[in-house]
UniProtKB/TrEMBL annotation:
Keywords recorded for this protein, A-Z: NAD, Nucleotide-binding, Oxidoreductase
NCBIfam families named among the record's database cross-references: PRK09414.1
GO annotations of cellular component type: cytosol
Record has Oxidoreductase as a keyword: yes
Gene Ontology molecular functions: glutamate dehydrogenase (NADP+) activity; nucleotide binding
Swiss-Prot/TrEMBL site (Important for catalysis) positions: D171
Taxonomic source organism: Maribellus comscasis
Subunit structure: Homohexamer.
GO biological process, one term: glutamate biosynthetic process
Family: Belongs to the Glu/Leu/Phe/Val dehydrogenases family.
Protein name: Glutamate dehydrogenase
Active-site residues, record numbering mapped to chain: K131
Domain Glutamate/phenylalanine/leucine/valine/L-tryptophan dehydrogenase C-terminal per the UniProt entry, residue ranges: 207-449
Entry annotated with the keyword Phosphoprotein: no
Length: 451
């Protein structure tokens, strides 16, 4: 591997990664973004190269794959595939969510686990990185079907996790209901009540603010970025994608800070409400999505606003964009449209929602761009605080947790500024987050020997 020239170094390293797993495109994308912004730093700090830290970091410590058989309400048998990627435990037990979605495969989970390692490091809490899930689709399943699936999934996963080993949480398709079923089955199998999962209900060991944390944290991070140019959310038009956990609470916080949220979406399309989604309309969305598990189109029907069938919301003019749905939901063309329409800031609530072309366009346009591993770290940060409360066997107030979340997001922002400020004063938050997250993990790996 050429270690003298940054560009050749990136190409050589990516060749190495692609040769090992040629079909893992999402994983390649996540690694390339990181290596691209680390290359200069690594060439100036060759001890990391000599110790092959990066080669070690792209190789999961362990991958667990298993069969998940379950029966539907009619007695038909289904077989899904379950996974847990235990990526890196240099700074703490593996920590990261579980995703239940038909697109789940090893490439998606490896990209998420790789991002999680750096993200968790940025929170400054002692958490390693992992991710897991299944190709199970919770859509249109009854509560009992979801419960039977979760019980079967946990029957195998329980052998591999534990409060000191690996602590899963939620992600797409895994919310409070699923965490409840998973926790119940773990407790039954192990006969122990421990903080083995986060995102638990507050009555049984969960932390206040965990449901809100990712969305709130994304807005806190965006607020910090805006302050660097003397701006705020007040009277800003905000486009948000998704309508799940992260999108709902990002919208709630934007409304609280005086911004106007004009879009939300799901996998079928987007709604555009030029008057803005207010508290009452947001309550409708929360009930629609969290209780009736309906489609976002129903919002357009109820409030008489436009529905953009099979479209993402990025053609709508906005000042600030918060992608909060899924990976690769903003491509290069959409990034161009956002910037041309006057968007001054993008903060990623979702994991890797911008393609590489989109990231390059945002950076070249010199707008404020907060990458997911920094901007959405609030969720896992409050998961870390849930682990702390479980260990101490006490529960902090809503205000206490929110204050800690706020200060963690400020620290992450500062870390990005520290490592990402370029000679002309522009803050490259991608570079800042990648270097800031990398240093602590890399130093810990060096200290722990060749493992
Ligand atoms: N829940 C959490 O604490 C955290 C979540 N994230 C990320 O935030 C994003 C959203 O996750 P959650 O809100 O938790 O999940 P969720 O399951 O509550 O909501 C997901 C949303 O994305 C939409 N969606 C899914 N696939 C889509 C597609 N192909 N096209 C358009 N929309 C699609 C769904 O309709 C839904 O509105 C994901 O990228 C997740 O990895 C990141 C950090 C923490
Ligand atoms: O709370 C957690 O452990 C995980 C959150 C998560 O999956 C993420 O940050 O992408």
């Amino acid at each position: 591997m050429n270690i003298n020239d940054p560009k050749t170094f990136v190409d050589d390293f990516m060749q190495y990664v692609k040769t090992k797993d040629p079909l893992q495109y999402e994983f390649h994308q996540a690694v390339e973004e990181v290596v691209e912004s680390l290359s200069d730093f690594l060439l100036k700090n060759p001890r990391y190269l000599h110790s092959k830290i990066l080669e070690r970091m792209v190789e999961p410590e362990r991958i667990i794959q298993f069969r998940v058989p379950w029966a539907d309400d009619q007695g038909n048998i289904h077989i899904n595939r379950g996974y847990r990627i235990e990526m890196n435990s240099a700074i703490g037990p593996y920590k990261g969510g579980l995703r239940f979605h038909p697109t789940v495969n090893q490439s998606i989970l490896k990209f998420l686990a790789f991002e999680q390692v750096l993200k968790n490091s940025l929170t400054s809490l002692p958490m390693g990185g992992g991710k897991g899930g299944s190709d199970f689709d919770p859509k249109n399943k009854s509560d009992s079907e979801v419960m039977r699936f979760c019980q079967s999934f946990m029957t195998e996963l329980a052998r591999h996790i534990g409060q000191y080993t690996d602590v899963p949480a939620g992600d797409i398709g895994v919310g409070g209901r699923e965490i409840g079923y998973l926790f119940g089955q773990y407790k039954r199998l192990r006969n122990e009540f421990t903080g083995v999962l986060t995102g638990k209900g507050v009555e049984w060991g969960g932390s206040l603010i965990r449901p809100e944390a990712t969305g709130y944290g994304t807005v806190y991070f965006a607020k910090e970025m805006l302050e660097t140019i003397g701006e705020s959310f007040e009277n800003k038009v905000v486009a948000i994608s998704g309508s799940g956990n992260v999108a709902q609470f990002a919208a709630e916080k934007v409304i609280e800070l005086g911004g106007k949220v004009v879009t939300l979406s799901d996998s079928s399309g987007s709604i555009y409400d030029p008057d803005g989604i207010d508290r009452k309309k947001l309550d409708f969305i929360m009930e629609l999505k969290n209780i009736h598990r309906g489609r976002i189109r129903e919002y357009a029907d109820k409030f008489g606003v436009s529905y953009l069938d099979k479209q993402r919301p990025w053609s709508i003019k906005c000042d600030i964009a918060l992608p909060c749905a899924t990976e690769n939901e903003i491509n290069g063309e959409e990034a161009k449209t956002l910037v041309e329409n006057g968007c001054i800031a993008v903060a990623e609530g979702a994991n890797m929602p911008s393609t590489m072309d989109a990231v390059h366009h945002f950076l070249n346009s010199k707008i404020l761009f907060g990458p997911g591993k920094a901007a959405n770290a609030g969720g896992v940060a409050v998961s870390g605080l849930e682990m702390t409360q479980n260990s101490m066997r006490l529960a902090w107030s809503r205000e206490e947790v929110d204050n800690k979340l706020h200060s963690i997001m400020k620290n992450i922002h500062q870390m990005c500024v520290k490592y990402g400020t370029e000679s002309n004063g522009f803050v490259n938050y991608v570079k800042g987050a990648n270097i800031g997250g990398f240093v602590k993990v890399a130093n810990s790996m060096m200290a722990q020997g060749l493992v």
